[in-house]
Amino acid sequence: MKAKALVLEKVRDLSLREIDLPSKVGPDDVKIKIDTVGICGSDVHYYTHGRIGSFVVREPMVLGHEAAGTITEVGANVRDLKVGDRVCMEPGVPDLSSRASKLGLYNVDPSVVFWATPPVHGVLTPYVIHPAAFTYKLPDNVTFAEAAMVEPFAVGLQAAVKAQIKPGDTAVVTGAGPIGIMAALAALASGCSRVIVSDLVDEKLAIAARYPGVSAVNIKKEKLADAVKAATDGWGVDVVFEASGSPRAYDDIQGLICPGGCLVAIGMPIEPVKLDISSVAAKEIRIETVFRYANVFDRALAMIASGKVDLKPLVSETFPFDQSIAAFERAAEGRPRDVKLQIKM
Ligand SMILES: [Zn+2]
Fold first, then answer.
1. Rounded CA gap, 217 and 211, in Å?
2. Which residues lie at CB < 5 A from ion ligand 1?
3. Cα separation, 330 vs 240, whole angstroms
4. pLDDT of 53 strictly over 90
């Protein structure tokens, strides 16, 4: 069926036009009228570079994967959702009978199909069809704008889960981009007593530091190691969340972490990074990695609904669907005060 959508034709070439999209609601699917879609760094990167790693845009592709909306149709087998439910969607769909899925690691199922990752179309279009199993009903007090931010917040929450935070833990987050801020908020809501966020850009740090429990370190002006020493009486933080993706963030990263602490690698450096394993081992630092998320969307919604996490201040501006191209141009500018730009359908 033809539908209007924001289509990435090729690098630096977007159009709002009709394109053929699936229209058949399978027995386990729901159809959703999209309300709000957040623009992600990955959407912008496909727009500006046409590829991320081995994923290359070879044919026109609809962008967008951070979405919320209202159910308009349900498949014959769907029991837990009904027409009119407000929902948000997990954009990655694994093969539920795969070995990874059976182990609860469906995010690393090699056959996972993920919105707006070539060649799979995204959701910047009025209606989408999605498995009910990866569609989550919104609590009444969660807005569509907040619900469209569950996807990036889920990455931060996955990092907090992997860190195995204990009550009162201290943490550092390197990188104050949207995912770094999400990791800081998830860490605080998961029991951290304080989080130090580091970056090179004051405007980004100022946004992170507006949250109680977050302090900011601009590493152009101050050494992160000194700030950590001062804050922890020289012991080191329990957890470092690396969210910048910069190989340089790993220079003496073990020096920030206390003995027995944890390093969670969230950012994805383009090049291999150097890590001093001997020094890491001398403190028995545990290393964890994050690839998207699994089994955290419902927890993220519960945290937002309860007021434990407030994502509303992170929406920098909302554009109407017919100005989607302008929204992407703005996102590609990378203004330091912009955390999340959203498109309202
Ligand atoms: Zn995203």
1. 14
2. 40, 66, 152
3. 31
4. no
